[in-house]
């Protein structure tokens, strides 16, 4: 793991002239940095070896290095806190103290500075001695190469998958047939003759090798020669070539030991030149290995085929012979297949589970998540028990995902899954192990996780790349490597959250515990805190009682509470001397008492403070003391005003507040800020406040809200300062604007203020039409906008945005065209409770979206049926959300046909029908039209339809007594 990098950075920071350390101390620091760099290299080598293959001396040495690096960071932090306090005291002399008192204060200050430097020098000498001792121990134990491994090569636990009896496999037929169709696709009634490479992608244990072998056995006889090759994590290219040559030729290759790679490639190509061949490249980890192996396969237009299995999506994309269509994503087993496999392994029958074990067996299957390896492993574990009792099965269930079981089949599963872990670079190993602090089955928000990584110090500055952007690349890399599973994929393909498969969680908790990386307090585990606990996660310990005397918390760096019990909040904050991360956002217990909150300012080492959803009403006045603080999340609280000292947080990168919270003047001095959430501009905020926001030139994300100014109109005096503020934010990528006022946002119609880097824009108040400056946003991928009137030129602006992936388009003015005689603004402002007056009119023409434009759009949300999709429209659209009022649509257009059948890539449709004052038969007509359009769509999308205000549907006999006046007004609220 990347452990000592933080310590090296901390030491290097002391070399700046600002601290004016003694020359001897500087020399010691240079020595320490060099020595730690050497230790880091050794740790990297150790981290590439499975933990079970390391001897105890290596493990102990690695733990000593980690503990030493933590101590170094803590010592340096303590010195920097003291130095900062001394500087501040020097800058604030007492004006009423007189000459003598001023002289004495300066003497005292100089003394404090001298003592501080002497203390850090003494600490550095002590650290140097500790580092020398650890380094000497490495030499004494002959650990210079970093590892001391077992000389016995373990058997690959994946080997049985290649020899599994096909008749015993469960759930293999459907994926096998799908893969065969993809592999052997026909062109113009005949076989595609070009060489075709198909990739099977999925997490370890999902059955990639088994599926590839099933296809291999089924189709192998149709080819003149074939080979099945396992590449492995660290491939031996010569061995691979030798195996290919042996399998395709059937001849002994003993005399080829002296050949180099080129000779093997030439020999294999010559042999395959006039033959139709079938090759399986199993378990490919690196694209560079594929580039070499691929050289041996000739393209002879004889219909040859290659299957590549890999756990990495980016590797599969690089190997595929086409950009799209040749990647097969492995799917988990269905519940039915999972149950059949489980019962067959445990009871030798597909349906012979005793009644008393059915409920717990279902829970076990949920834990396995359709992963065949997990099902077989757990089944083998249960079969090994002398008796099949409910208590034993419950014990196994409770141990899954906690790294507790010690059984051969469990070890085999961990060995298979751990291959992915040991392939990770050191920084990703650290980030992955950190996921062990989250509860099982937890949905982990991407932003929450990334900012916690930053707070923990796992992510370091790189030139031109923000901390968040670098953290996001780590997050995406873990998804690409199948270590975490994405959730809530947005229109731009980004995962808004992730979760960890229980079996992967079991692995990382096992590794985290073994390496003393983090400690998990869980109701299913004994309450034992290791010595020098560094990271503590409290999960579901509702009945936990643990006295302070039994806990050693002086070294605790990270405290995360995911429990409804607030026992930890009763522990004195003074115990957390070096705490860096304090996160109780998911702790749903009693509210924090005011005294506890006031004491938070004493946690001088804090980097991350998560107090979301805690219902606190004030912060400590001296919160500015937290000079290292980078992330402060205060959302969903009752804080009326932030203390003035908060503007002293020079290292704060992310600030999240409620829009009702008053932020003090001076925020413009917080130059490190990159993200501001829910910043409120209200009656208590001056125009100069916006000028200060404009000084935060590093800001990437701004969510700003304008609460009510007296009535429901905005204060026009803020228009120019607001636009000037946005103009200054040249790095702004995400902008969200909202407020209680109902006036138009047309004061933003000029283009001079537009940040050119903007990628996401959300406005929750209306424009009169689509502003022309949106056409300048060539990087805009996410747009939420409300307009009063939609004109053809407005639609053209949106259609020409080159990378727009998501569009939420709401129309306030529901009568299309210029023939309308009344003002939409007049209607809104003349009616109470935000109600809108609409007159039923004769049918009018809709706006048509043709094949030109919207080339990148994958998700569309729209609140009327004013748009019609022509053939070829929106060719990448996959998700459509449509909200419309049934009665109005029928009256205005006469039907519910909007061309949904022309959206060729549509996968999912969500329709919300507003039934207010609509006849039952018309509502049914609308639903039938939606279903018919979906049936006529070539992609057969999934449709989810729902009714709103169903209680206001007008029955036919009631409607017959009403006059059907074409100009009869009716009133409805925007929420249907």
UniProtKB/TrEMBL annotation:
> Is Metal-binding tagged as a keyword?
no
Q: Which UniProt keywords apply?
A: Coiled coil, Leucine-rich repeat, Nucleotide-binding, Plant defense, Repeat
Q: Which domain of life is it from?
A: Eukaryota
According to the entry, what is the taxonomic lineage of the organism?
Answer: Eukaryota, Viridiplantae, Streptophyta, Embryophyta, Tracheophyta
Q: Which family does it belong to?
A: Belongs to the disease resistance NB-LRR family.
**What Gene3D superfamilies does the record tag this protein with?**
1.20.5.4130, Helical domain of apoptotic protease-activating factors, P-loop containing nucleotide triphosphate hydrolases, Ribonuclease Inhibitor, Winged helix-like DNA-binding domain superfamily/Winged helix DNA-binding domain
Domain (Disease resistance protein winged helix) spans 437-508
Where is the Disease resistance R13L4/SHOC-2-like LRR domain positioned along the sequence? Answer: 555-942
The molecular function GO annotations come to: ADP binding
| CDD domains membership | RX-CC_like
Keyword check for Membrane: no
Ranges for the Disease resistance N-terminal domain? 4-90
User: What's the protein called, per UniProt?
Assistant: AAA+ ATPase domain-containing protein
InterPro entries of this UniProt entry?
Answer: Apaf_helical, Disease_R_plants, Leu-rich_rpt, LRR_dom_sf, LRR_R13L4/SHOC2-like, NB-ARC, P-loop_NTPase, RX-like_CC
Q: Which organism is it from?
A: Leersia perrieri
Boundaries of every NB-ARC domain copy: 194-350
GO BP, one example? plant-type hypersensitive response
